[in-house]
Amino acid sequence: MLDRGLALFGIGLVFGGGFGFLTAAGMGVTLDGHDHATGHGHAEAPAHDHAHADPVEIAPGGTVPGVTLAALPDSAGGWNVHVAVSDFTFSPENAGQGDVAGEGHVHLYLDGEKVARVYGPWVHLGAGQPGQVLSAALYSNDHRPLTSGGVPIEASVTLGQ
């Protein structure tokens, strides 16, 4: 009897965990195992920088993608974050591939610390207090920040305002 119960418990953990990860992936949420901006023997890098990646500069006269950000308090806790993009396509299926103009993903930062990688317009953020600054920056498929005129393409909002 104990062996059967243990086996059913193990099966439940596997299926429950798998369902949870599939649900999160379907909503555009990733659980980053590490942040390329820190560690790995590299010198300390600014939070919005990948120490090993040059930015993707939008050519003068080219179409510059845009991003806007809104954070709504969730009655169950945290924030429902809306990341609206223009001239840009979320492309989770091409993550880690070569750069394709106008597609990629967004990094979310809370007071300068990376908290999520986002592949869709809505994400729930469990962290954050009113007054903290939430930023969204556009990144290419190959995980390089997009810039225009040398300036990162990003938007910021103060939580609770």
Describe the 3D structure.
By secondary structure, this protein is of the alpha+beta class. It has a domain at 56-158: Immunoglobulin-like (Sandwich), CATH 2.60.40. 16% of the residues lie in helices and 35% in strands. It is built from 1 helix and 11 strands. Strands 4, 5, 6, 8 and 11 form a 5-stranded mixed β-sheet that branches. It has a 3-stranded mixed β-sheet with strand order 1-9-10, with no helix packed on it. It has a 3-stranded antiparallel β-sheet with strand order 2-3-7, with no helix packed on it. It is globular and about 70 Å long.
What labels describe this entry?
161 residues, alpha+beta, 3-stranded mixed β-sheet, globular
What is the assembly state of the chains in this entry?
single chain
Overall 3D form: globular
Strand composition percent: 25-35%
> How does the major sheet shape up?
5 strands, mixed
Structural class: alpha+beta
Helix content: 10-25%
| Count of beta strands | 11
CATH architecture of the domain at 56-158: Sandwich
Listing every helix as H and every strand as E from the N terminus to the C terminus, the arrangement reads HEEEEEEEEEEE
Number of helices: 1
N-C termini distance? 57 Å
Radius of gyration: 18 Å
CATH class division of the domain at 56-158: Mainly Beta
Low-confidence stretches: 21-25, 30-52
Q: CATH topology of the domain at 56-158, anyone?
A: Immunoglobulin-like
Brief synopsis:
This protein is α+β, with helices and mostly antiparallel strands.
